[in-house]
Design goal:
There is one protein chain. By secondary structure, the chain is mainly α. The protein folds into 3 domains: about 45-175, no CATH class; about 195-285, no CATH class; about 305-410, no CATH class. About 65% of the residues lie in helices and about 5% in strands. The chain is built from 18 helices and 8 strands. It has helices spanning about 1-20, 35-50, 55-70, 80-95, 95-105, 110-125, 130-140, 145-155, 155-165, 175-190, 195-205, 225-230, 235-250, 260-285, 285-305, 320-340, 370-385, 385-395, and strands at about 210, 215-220, 345, 350-355, 360, 370, 405, 420. It is globular, with a radius of gyration of 27 Å.
Length: about 425
């Protein structure tokens, strides 16, 4: 009997030891608060950097629209080009998800995708009554009517779009604007996702008399010159990054192949650009904090749905928490794209409005989706699959229902379609 008690005691001891030394898979979660907070802070800074890239997108659109009117329509009308470019650029700048897509396209140097989108938006605006008569008058005044303009006036808008795309060649004038925007956007995002630059900014904002992990600081608040002189390796890296981005965009094999005068200008511009961004960031600190709160709300909602738990089927044990969160954010973006929504409502405060009667909360519009609903849809898609997800979108009226009769599928098909119902 004594031996039996000893055996039981030994087994209980082993269970305790194993439970302490070996994590239980279903109890573990990717919820390290420090790691999650770092992700929230960095993502907010990146989003803020993207929001500051509207002028760069606008510059590219201005060049592209001007060129498609001149080379595509044979219409040289600065006033028309300005108004059209303003409207097209506004489509990107006024909606974060559209701006993020445009910034990503420019960062990737994807001329073709950007050109297709700008041409499509331009033609859609031009055929609107507000533009149509001006376009027809301008085309009528041309010495020679371009093919794209002729197709447009005749109402063949698809043909007109293709001809306009063909007129935007790889050596078009807007390519230079795109390269400049690409360089500026990449540098800006690199800076604000760099933790060393963030620490330097905080020293600039608050002042410091301390030893940071990128060097010692003795700086009064707002003294950029003092911050720059004490950034040590970080300042050198900023200048190197600016030259490397220029090399990549302009096709040089090595940084050393860039002419010395251009390299000097790049180093000076890097410093001046960082100073301007520090000043702007200090003015817009409330906006950055709002982005941090929104991202914190996303993390909290993902945790409510247990989507960060390691036992979930979409959680790869080898991936980092950062990579998991990136994937989940991509799924959130996909829901917004699938439903054609442009505004994500994080909390009731996002619906706050004001008019002559005072403050109130506005109603949801067809452009809005509530964060809790979006995360729920992501969870459904990852748990139950693609078909269940689209059926739920249809059930909620977030996408149009398409009923297709089997007889309509006869014949040869090219491309892809999504079938929700076949009768």
């Amino acid at each position: 009997m004594l031996q039996m008690y000893r055996n039981v005691s030994f087994l209980l001891l082993m269970v305790v030891i194993l439970s302490v030394s070996t994590p239980i898979p279903w109890a573990a979660a990717a919820d390290d608060e420090e790691e999650l907070q770092a992700y929230v802070d960095q993502r907010a800074r990146e989003q803020w950097a993207i929001q500051q890239s509207g002028d760069d997108v606008d510059a590219v659109v201005q060049e592209m629209v001007g060129e498609l009117l001149i080379d595509g329509f044979n219409v040289d009308n600065p006033s028309l080009a300005y108004e059209l470019a303003h409207d097209v650029a506004g489509d990107y700048i006024d909606a974060y998800y559209a701006l993020e897509d445009a910034v990503t396209t420019i960062r990737d140097g994807d001329l073709s995708s950007l050109a297709q989108d700008v041409v499509a938006r331009s033609v859609d605006y031009l055929k609107d009554a507000a533009y149509l008569s001006d376009v027809e008058d301008a085309v009528g005044e041309s010495m020679e009517v371009a093919e794209a303009a002729g197709a447009f006036v005749e109402g063949d808008y698809d043909a007109s779009k293709q001809m306009l795309l063909d007129s935007l060649g790889e050596h078009s004038s807007f390519v230079g604007a795109m390269n400049t925007a690409r360089q500026r956007i990449q540098t800006r995002i690199n800076n604000w996702t760099n933790d060393e630059i963030e620490e330097a900014y905080q020293v600039y904002r608050d002042g410091a008399e301390r030893h940071g992990w990128i060097g010692s600081y003795s700086v009064d608040a707002g003294d950029f010159d003092a911050v720059w002189s004490q950034m040590d390796g970080a300042a050198r890296q900023i200048k190197i990054d600016a030259q490397e981005e220029y090399r990549r965009v302009h096709g040089y094999d090595r940084i050393e192949d860039i002419p010395d005068n251009i390299r000097d200008n790049l180093r000076q511009q890097a410093r001046e650009s960082l100073q301007a961004e520090f000043e702007l960031r200090r003015e817009q600190e409330d906006d950055v904090q709002r982005l941090q709160q929104q991202n914190q709300r996303v993390i909290e909602m993902l945790q409510e749905y247990n989507m960060l738990e390691t036992w979930q089927p979409w959680h790869n044990r080898d991936q980092t928490t950062e990579r998991l969160l990136d994937r989940l954010y991509d799924h959130i973006d996909q829901v917004m794209e699938d439903t054609g929504r442009s505004t994500l409502i994080y909390s009731q405060e996002d619906l706050a409005a004001e008019d002559l009667r005072g403050e109130y909360y506005r109603e949801l519009t067809d452009d809005d989706l509530v964060l809790e609903d979006v995360v729920g849809l992501v969870h459904l898609r990852l748990s139950d699959g693609h078909d269940a997800y689209f059926e739920e979108l249809e059930k909620r009226g977030l996408i149009e229902s398409e009923h297709i009769h089997a007889a309509e599928l006869e014949g040869r098909w090219r491309g892809s379609i999504r079938l929700l119902h076949v009768e």
